[in-house]
Amino acid sequence: MITAPTTMTAAHTEHEAESHYLGQFIPLHYHHNMLADENRMGNFKAAIEYAVFDGARVLELGGGTGVLSCLAASRASKVWCVEFNHELVSESRRLLALNRNGHKVEVIHANAFDYLPPEPVDVVICEMIHVAMLREKQVEMIEAFKQRYLRHFGEKLPVFIPEAVIMAVQPLQQSYDFHGFHAPIIQFQRPQLACSGTTALAAPAVYSTLDFTQANSREIKWAGNFMLEQDGTVNALRFITKNILTVMPEQASTIDWLIDYLILPLPTPLPAQAGDELGISFSYQAGGAIRSLEHSIRAALTPASLS
Predict the structure, then answer these.
(1) Residue % of the chain over a pLDDT of 90
(2) Full set of structural domains in the chain with CATH
(3) DSSP-assigned beta bridge partners for residue 92
(4) Can you tell me the distance from the alpha carbon of 274 to that of 284, in angstroms, rounded to the nearest whole number?
(5) Which of 174, 192, 193 is nearest to 265 (CA)?
(6) What is the tens place of the pLDDT at every residue in 1-15?
(7) What are the backbone dihedrals phi and psi of residue 189, each rounded to the nearest 5 degrees, phi first?
(8) 245 near 43, Cβ under 8 Å?
(9) Residue 299: left if φ>0, alpha if ψ -120 to 50, beta else—which one?
(10) Which residues contact residue 137 at a Cβ distance below 8 angstroms, ignoring those fewer than 6 apart?
(11) CA–CA distance, 175 with 57 (Å, rounded to integer)
(12) What is the bridge-based pairing of β-strands 164-174 and 205-211?
């Protein structure tokens, strides 16, 4: 058995501590990238058009520029858009005033971790999402909201957008050559683009499914095995996150958003052959730092001749 050890030190732990409010501090200049992301915007628009009915009351937690609230306002009677960043509060009010139905959106300058709407709502939109549910506070935000909403308004929860998330992991041989500079480093990849330096050594395995209508723990852990399908060097793991934005039961279908892949390097590359068995384990908290996942990864290779 060949293993790739990792270590966690007190310095790592301290370095990995990130702000509780990170998900509410996406800088203004970054929002152009989000607005221009056809993969994100097209799927959210379709999900909102499906889930928000005429006359619905809608709450958005972490509204940013207000774009998703504005999309909801095309059918909703009232939308409350909660944003913590004061600069984005001003910007979202300015932008909403330029758009049809923007007058139906009330931008609330408040902490989304504490806010409750003045009356029950039918749909809650919350897009504080990062690949593998790291860094941003989607899971923590929704769980806290459900508890205070049920205490205040009773037993029925609103519909959530997204409704669920499915996460998977996949072993890779990843190129880390940058014009002759070798740099095993965290990378992100667009799902729609072919990456010439990436070779998948086995099919992805689902390691966690979160249903936001149910109680979810922030603790995510997994251990599993892959049978490698071709020769190569296992030197990275690809983390895949599919958000189920809405479920359409009458069509037996869903509207999904597959966000950028996260590629994490292994500290010790493992030369392997087809048929070898790769064991992977890791654990982390939803909303935690990327490094907290990276440093928890354990990889062990059993050659086919020994399995």
Answers:
(1) 84
(2) 22-127 (3.40.50.150), 165-302 (2.70.160.11)
(3) none
(4) 30
(5) 174
(6) 444 444 333 333 433
(7) -130, 145
(8) yes
(9) beta
(10) 20, 21, 22, 23, 24, 113, 128, 287
(11) 49
(12) antiparallel
Neighbours of 51 (CB within 10 A): 24
- In angstroms, rounded to a whole number, what is the distance separating the alpha carbons of residues 75 and 132? 32
- The size of the chain, in residues, is 307
pLDDT band at 109 (very low <50, low <70, confident <90, very high): very high
Which are the contacts of 299, defined by CB distance < 8 A and separation ≥ 6? Answer: 3, 4, 234, 266, 268, 270, 278, 279, 280
Number of CB atoms found within 10 A of residue 50's CB: 15
**Cβ atoms within 10 Å, residue 223:** 11
Q: Which two tokens stand for residue 298?
A: 């354990």
Element (H, E) at 46: helix 38-51
Residues with Cβ within 8 Å of residue 27, at least 6 apart in sequence: none
Coil/strand/helix, residue 88 = helix
Can you give the pLDDT at residue 15?
A: 37
Rounded distance, CA 64 to CA 260, Å?
20
Residue type, 22: L
